[in-house]
Amino acid sequence: MSANRPGIAITGTGSYLPKRVMTNADLEKMVDTSDEWILSRTGIRERHIAEEGEGVCAMGAAAGRQALAQAGVAPEEVDLIVLGSFTPDIYLPSGSCLIQDMIGAKRAVCFDMAAACSVFLYALETARCMIASGAYKTALVIGAEKLSPFVDWDDRRTCVLFGDGAGAAVVQSGKETMGRGMIANVMGSDGSLAHLLTVPGMGSRHRLTAEHILNKDVCIKMAGNEVFKHAVRCMSDAAQKVLDMAGMSMEEVAVVVPHQANMRIIQAIENRLEGLKGKFYVNLERVGNMSGASVPVALDEAARTGVVKKGDVVLTVVFGAGFTWGASLLEWGY
Ligand code: ACO
User: Which of 176, 198, 222 corresponds to the end of one domain?
Assistant: First the structure.
């Protein structure tokens, strides 16, 4: 997309974190672990946990309202709401419809997407394509997760990793000042590795029984070492590929916003992509891994704190269950 054409860009962001903070010291009282182990293996000190009854949709709506206010867009102007989440409030109807009602976006077309931790980037690209078709002008893209009900709080290998939260972005076309907007995107998936990261009992294959709940089949199961290896390789390759596709160098990237899975994964990617060293925005120390909410919350924080400024080239890179992965280059629009 040439620089002098109006682009399709992010024009506002927002985020929401539940009030309750769970520290590593709190986890020490629940499982056989230590602050030292968690910090050195993951980089996480604390995470936010939503209250009983506080759902993904309320969190997503809070983030969405903030993003709309930032963009100066009224709810009635929203054409499209896309919620990326694998933990919606309920499975029928879709969470995006509940959010539509909460924020009063009466004209919006609403649907949900699932691509685990990668979903925000998938949703962003879907919104971009729908706007590029000319049929829509303004989209609200939300990544929100309440992972805490799906965490096995007796499993020290997984319970230390996750947190709850929501982030949102307004995506618009048509403003002359938008520059290149969303410059390039790559995505990939490999369903042959689905078993390495899964919630095996959540879905329609089997009727949910008390036994499933007792066996913790509705909790996140993960082969941590395997996930680690694939995450590093797929995110590094995706970052390089999207730069090649756009014909851009690492020097042109101002900030990298990676999926906030684990500090050691981020460091391994940084070591592979020398030219991007020191450009990674990391907030997982305070929020843990929030799956599909990680990237939009980090983008919002980076923008609000001035780490990302209008016109900056931002590289986002994600990886999640499926496996799914992707990378996007964005010229920041506000
Ligand atoms: N506290 C203390 N000890 C622990 C803990 C804990 N919380 N968790 C595991 N251990 C122990 C294990 O029991 C094991 O002990 P053993 O050798 O006596 O059996 C030892 O530590 C090493 O266990 P590993 O699983 O090999 O630990 P590893 O160094 O691989 O770290 C971790 C585990 C952090 C999960 C790592 O594999 C990882 O980062 N994986 C990436 C996965 C990830 O981040 N997923 C997030 C979700 S997916 C996504 O968002 C893309």
Answer: 176
Q: Is the pLDDT of residue 178 over 70?
A: no
Q: Which residue has the higher pLDDT, 177 or 226?
A: 226
Active-site residue (options: 57, 110, 259, 262): 259
155 and 258 part of one domain: no
What does the pLDDT look like over 262-284, one tens digit per residue? 999 999 999 999 999 999 999 99
117 a catalytic residue: yes
Q: Give the residue numbers spanning the domain of 86.
A: 2-176
Burial 167-201 (b: 16+ CB within 10 A, else e): bbbbbbbeeeebbbbbbbbbbbbeeebeebbbbbb
Whole-number Å distance, alpha carbon 35 to ligand 1 midpoint, is 14
Tell me which residue has tokens 């968690």: 38
Please tell me if the CB atom of residue 231 comes closer than 6 angstroms to any atom of ligand 1: yes
Atom index in ligand 1 nearest the CA of residue 291 equals: 50
Q: CA 192 to CA 273: how far, in whole Å?
A: 27
Q: Which atom of ligand 1 is nearest to the CA of 160?
A: 7
